[in-house]
Every structure is written in C-alpha cells, then in structure tokens.
Amino acid sequence: MAGTLAALLLAVVLVSLAGLLTRYYVGKRLIEWLDMTMLRVPLLNKIYGTIKQVNEAFSSGKKTSFKTVVLVEFPRAGMYSVGFLTSEKHDEIQTKTNEKVVCVFVPTTPNPTSGFLVVVPEDKVTKLDMSVADGIKYIISLGSVSPEYTTPPSITRLTS
Prior knowledge:
- By secondary structure, this protein is of the alpha+beta class.
- It has four helices and six strands.
- The protein has helices at residues 2-40, 42-59, 91-97, 132-140; strands at 68-73, 80-87, 101-107, 115-121, 126-127, 156-157.
C-alpha cells in the first residue's frame, strides 16, 4: 500500500514537472513566434511595435524615467504641451544659462515613443496632478481621454 502511494505521488510530481517545463518552453516559443509574425506584417508592425515598446517601458520592474506629468509652453509661448519631467540636475546647462532648469520630454501624439526633449526654466513648468499612466493615456488618445479631476482647479508650480 505505501509503495503504491509513493509511486502514485512520484508519478504526479513527474507529470506536473513535465507539464510545467513544456508549458513554459512551448508558451515562450509560441509568444516569440507570434511576436515575430506581428512585426513582419507591414502596417500592423508600426502599431504593434509602438504598443510593445510602450508596454515594455512601463511594465518592466525598472524605475520609470518619467517622474511627473507637467505642462510647459511649447512649441511657443501661449501654446501648452503635456510632458514628463525626466530630470532636474543639469550642472553645465544651469551654469551656462544662470537659471535652474529641468528636462521635460514632450512626446508626440499618438506615438509617445518619439518626441522632444526641452530644457525649461523650473519656474516655467506647471506640475499636474495626473499620474504618469494617465498622462500617457491622455497623449495616446490625442487628448480625448482626459483623466478625472475632482479637486478644485489650482496651478501648482514645481518647487524643490
């Protein structure tokens, strides 16, 4: 009786391990094949490639380079663009401009993987209350999907 039970337990463990290894190997190969196929289809490869890059940028466990969603006057005074604060320390630029500046990435719409890096005086940057994920949705949707904003409107300037 004990021998039969041990044999049954061993069979269950071996079959489970074989299934687990097969699932991961076969599953990975299937995903790689589908990925390569999607990237070979002429128009679809642009859309799929962009979505894949954005997804990898924000779903990987790595710290995102986008810190805060901001509003800057770009491409000229009186016109505003939504962007992402990427860094705040620029010794050479601050020395040569005699201003405290920040780097803002202003993505293009609807493809946020390209855009403009603008170096802006810190006091010309307006911090928004939306999350980075909401900012990306806002940009990808061409401004048609606006994040909910329930608190009274107030403009907050970036301060260190």
